[in-house]
Amino acid sequence: MLQKIKNIFWHLPKSIFFNFFYFFPSRKLVLIGVTGTDGKTTTSTLIHHLLEQSGYKVALISTITSPGLHTTSPDPKYLQKYFYDLGKQGYTHVVCEVTSHALDQYRYWGCQFAVSVLTNISHEHLDYHKTINNYIKSKSRLFLQSQISVLNRDDYSYSILKKLLPQKSKTYSAKFKSDYTAKNIKTTLQKLSFNFNGNTLTTDSPYHYQVYNILAALSVISELNIDIKKVIPLLKHFPETKGRREEVNNSFKFRTIIDFAHTPAALDATLSSLKKVTPNRLIVIFGATGGRDKTKRPIMGQVVQNQADIAILTSDDTRNEKIKDINQQIISGFDLSNAHENKPNSFPKDKIFNYYQIENRQDAFNQAIKIAQPGDTIIACGKGHETSILLGNTEYPWSESEAFRTAFRLRKST
């Protein structure tokens, strides 16, 4: 109730004020909205890449490029000024990664989107929204501000959203008949390929979940009346998104990857895809953020045990929670009859799920590199592109890639 009051009497008036102050600058731009629990940044970046390569002057507002105070969807004060500046600089299109918090707090009030697309909706932010239905309803607000809505036909939210939206939506799917459908999906160690509305597409990102990111992006491009046949070749080399399946090169014979996955659904999609292309063991470094949705933590633990061989539980942004408490909630999702807890600096047992509790995140990276064997894949989840880690009330500089490189050096020196 207090949040609703704040939204109506603080956030909404502020958004209205800055729209008028900058003369509704978004009306001079073609806005493309991307919302969902997971895949927003990758899909937004992909749409931006395809538009830019097609000759449009396009900007991107996302988790990794936001112009306002480290938030995915900026405060209206920054957002409306940014739109104003973009118009002055001759930009025509803006791809906006839009969060449920931003929609609930009216940050995009006054903005009309040409096309908006949903990636998926799963267990996340229930500390704020309280129920999954409230979460879905918040997401639906984007489509009420959009001329064209594109929904994921395969997602749980589809049946709810289509009832909430007055206009008929376009759909994409890898399972059902839809406006934009993927068929004959094939993955190898090097590539992903599938048929898309009569076209054949091949990309060097060999993960099954990329099918949905690509479908979402191509659906938007098609709804903008851009020739898909000219765009598909641009996907042959999948554009790199910082902190998303970002590989850190090493001289050892195993893979090391950084990813932002921090929800049960994202972990499941990422790990299941990696499992298929990992010859040996899958090792996961992860934790959960403090002061956020606690109910997802046991589910994250269950997902990791189902998909990985070894888990190293460590710190994420702990805020004012104790790392031990957060990790115990994750461990409560493990089937402990089929799991073995290892002490730091020990080597895992064979033929059983192994897990470690290592509070210091750098030490967790060191341990992963120490125990890695040829053919293994190590993936660090949760931090992705972020450049700091919040422990208690103190924010420290942090880099996942540098953490890997430090661990590489340590292994070489021993």
Task: Please sum up the structure shown.
This protein is of the alpha/beta class and 414 residues long. The chain is built from 14 helices and 18 strands.
Report on this structure.
The protein is of the alpha/beta class and 414 residues long. It folds into two domains: 2-235, Mur-like, catalytic domain (UDP-N-acetylmuramoyl-L-alanine:D-glutamate ligase, 3-Layer(aba) Sandwich); 246-413, Protein-Tyrosine Phosphatase, Chain A (Alpha-Beta Complex). Helix content is 37%, strand content 21%. The chain has a nine-stranded mixed sheet. A seven-stranded mixed sheet has the order 10-11-16-12-13-15-14, sandwiched between helices. Helix 1 packs parallel to helix 3 (76-88). The longest helix has 20 residues, at 2-21. The chain is globular. The relative contact order is 0.10. The mean pLDDT is 91.
Residues in helix, %: 25-40%
What's the alpha carbon Rg, rounded to whole Å?
Answer: 22 Å
Give the overall shape: globular
Number of domains: 2
Strand content: 15-25%
Any idea of the CATH class of the largest domain? Alpha Beta
- CATH-defined superfamily of the largest domain: Mur-like, catalytic domain
CATH topology-level name of the largest domain: UDP-N-acetylmuramoyl-L-alanine:D-glutamate ligase
Poorly predicted segments:
none
Number of strands: 18
- Summarize the main sheet: 9 strands, mixed
Strand order of the largest sheet: 2-3-1-4-5-6-7-8-9
- What count of helical segments does DSSP give? 14
Q: For the record, give the distance between the C-alpha atoms at the N and C termini, rounded to a whole number.
A: 57 Å
Q: How would you state the average pLDDT, rounded? A: 91
- Secondary structural class: alpha/beta
CATH architecture heading of the largest domain: 3-Layer(aba) Sandwich
